[in-house]
């Protein structure tokens, strides 16, 4: 989970905010994810949107299983792939599990992202499902499709992830570990490329689900322009092989706003973000 945006909220910014607040009652410093978190937790439209995504996948499921040439992972060789059992790959955070309560805690505590607190939240196993995800994965499993969860959560908290998914009714295999965590094996990097290849060795990957471009293709560190081109170049895949869930709170889209430059100060990041606001005036 990449959460550099939280650099925007260090103590110095808070103190500055308090100073302004004391000068003017109308000036309140807002945590950068307040609106996004309120939306995720309250907008009925969010539920409608994610349900639409999973419903679309459901309506394609039969065809995807039947058609042995159908693949969401074009690197597979036709003849070999056709004999393999079908699988779907889903990212976990903001794809099948809703972590907005963790965001809400950070906002209320006026704190920035802390990996230990994040792991504690994962081990609480209290995340709700993203609307539509349980129904889709259960239906896929009922049809004999292997359901893999490919997550950048750490391996040491995989048990928390498993408990959370299990509690909510997400299908899990008793014979095989289908939660593929970050660094669980030597070459399994956060880029997820190796883990997709691992699944592709024994399965025909019929659908991929995620909230971040990196859940589908390697997109680390590339510019906004390149990100946009990647989406256009793969336009025939969206809604058929690849399914995107909305995440306005965090993700590589946000880091791309300041070109993934973690050396920038919070003020510089804030300026870089604002420079991306398009007013059509210049
Ligand atoms: Mg995610």
TrEMBL record:
Residues 1-26 form the signal peptide. InterPro entries: Acid_phosphat_B-like, HAD-like_sf, HAD_sf, Lipo_e_P4. The lineage of its organism: Bacteria, Pseudomonadati, Balneolota, Balneolia, Balneolales. This is 5'-nucleotidase, lipoprotein e(P4) family. One of its GO terms (cellular component) is cell outer membrane. Keywords: Lipoprotein, Signal. PANTHER family: ACID PHOSPHATASE-LIKE PROTEIN.
